[in-house]
Amino acid sequence: MPDPEVPVTDLVSPVVQSRSLVTEIPGPRSRELSARRAAAVPPGVGTTLPVWVERAAGGIVVDVDGNRLIDFGTGIAVTTVGNSAPRVVAAVREQVAAFTHTCFMVTPYESYLQVAEKLNALTPGSHEKRTALFNSGAEAVENAVKIARSYTGRPAVIAFDHAYHGRTNLTMALTAKNMPYKHRFGPFAGEVYRVPMAYPYRWPTGPENCAQEAFDTFVSLVHTQVGEANTAAVIIEPIQGEGGFVVPAPGFLALVSAWCAEHGIVLIADEIQSGFCRTGDWFACEHEGVVPDLITTAKGIAGGLPLSAVTGRAQIMDSVHVGGLGGTYGGNPVACAAALGAIETMQAEDLCGAARHIGSVLTGRLTALAEKYDVIGDVRGRGAMIAVELVEGNGSKTPDAGLTAAVSSACHRNGLITLTAGTFGNVLRFLPPLVISDDLLHEALSIIEDAFAAAV
Ligand code: PLZ
């Protein structure tokens, strides 16, 4: 746990670990940059909080006006080890001075191999595994589908309601939500079929029936509309990210996993948001004892540098012809060095344990808040991946996106970076770095409580 008054790193940018607001949010320098941005960057690239960043470390983001904000967003679940984590900075500095790029497909280097070995060892299951590295999460998902199709010789892929898998053409097809991800961007890749998610809070007959009924519907839809023999893969987020931190009803993942095994269908766990200690385990599917055939990772893997991976059973991964997988930058040496620094940090600092601790603090105070405000319909998630779903209240589960936006902007104005999520835009999600101090964690929760008091 970093001492609040001691800089997290003296390497480049000492950042005091406390919140401090010296202007309104966003401040005048940020507003100037936002005005310039309009003439240089298209609005299609959105921005949650137009506070322009000067530096960041640990759990604090410093903006160009000198404000220090508490980071409950981690750049969408990326800087799990904290921003500019010391081991990541040191590893990147050393690598960038040695060589920046050769392309692993041209002349390879050991750090790629080390990351692959780490992933093969850390991901669930003791079977023989292989790992291929890419750049973005979407690219990992695309490759997992390519590998599953190549291995099975079948075309169809099954994805879930509320799923998010990326913004490329195939991953847009896999993503459930139209606005803003898919609207006017079709036609999409074919052979993608959607089935209901075991979403306990919104399951029509109640959470106790959710796992079995969702599974029965899944089996029936695949059988009648797709055919098991045409199905290459089922892709699922063990805890849905953009969809609103939906934790599948307990037992659902295990049922789907056993069914996939029975039909020779590849189970792909998309752990791009939920992986790397975020939920209190290395990977979220471990909590359910599920061992996927392929697992996609990115985000938290490399402390902020772009890196992603597909890890999976050797016989599946090895089924692709020589030269069938790759890309110029996949497994870039600087990103690999960062990943080794990030993974070492997770191990040395027991960040899975830290995530469980953060989860109990968050859940404790948010559950108390939900008792006070009936507009908080659900408090859910695991470890440091916790969300509240906001509804109209008075017994109604009608989503309240307006209130969600109001609470989130009240947090922003008070120096707490929060994100929203959910198919209906009514989920407030919290993704603190796992190195955050208890003081910052509690201060952030007080800001959230104040935001509810002001907005409800
Ligand atoms: N799979 C489970 O969460 C990325 C996207 C934000 P990329 N989620 C954040 C946005 O609005 O673009 C994500 C994910 C899961 C795949 C992806 C895609 O990862 O690195 O953004 O391509």
Q: Could you list some keywords that capture this structure?
A:
alpha/beta, 456 residues, 37% helix, binds ligand PLZ, 13 helices, seven-stranded mixed β-sheet
> Largest sheet, order of strands side by side?
4-10-9-8-7-5-6
User: What's the alpha carbon Rg, rounded to whole Å?
Assistant: 22 Å
Ligand list:
ligand PLZ
What amount of the residues lies in strands? 15-25%
User: Low-confidence segments, ≥5 residues, pLDDT <50?
Assistant: none
Query: What structural class do helix, strand and pairing data support?
Result: alpha/beta
Mean pLDDT figure: 96
Q: Termini, distance in Å?
A: 34 Å
Q: What percent of the residues sit in helical stretches (DSSP H or I)?
A: 25-40%
Order of helices and strands: HEEEHHHEHEHEHEHEEEHHHEEEHEEEH
**Helix tally?**
13
**Quick one: how many beta strands?**
16
Description:
With about 450 residues, the chain is α/β, with parallel strands linked by helices. Helices cover about 35% and strands about 15% of the residues. It contains 13 helices and 16 strands. The chain has helices spanning about 30-35, 75, 85-100, 110-120, 135-150, 170-175, 205-225, 250-265, 315, 335-350, 350-370, 400-415, 440-455; strands spanning about 55, 60-65, 70, 130-135, 155-160, 190-195, 230-235, 265-270, 295, 310-315, 375-380, 385-395, 395-400, 415, 420, 425-430. It has a seven-stranded mixed β-sheet, sandwiched between helices. Strands 11, 12, 13, 15 and 16 form a five-stranded antiparallel β-sheet that branches. A hairpin with a 2-residue loop joins strand 11 and strand 12. The radius of gyration is 22 Å and the shape is globular. The two termini are about 35 Å apart. The model has no long low-confidence stretch (mean pLDDT about 95). The protein binds ligand PLZ. Ligand PLZ binds near residues 76, 166, 242 and 272. Ligand PLZ binds near residues 166, 242, 273 and 298.
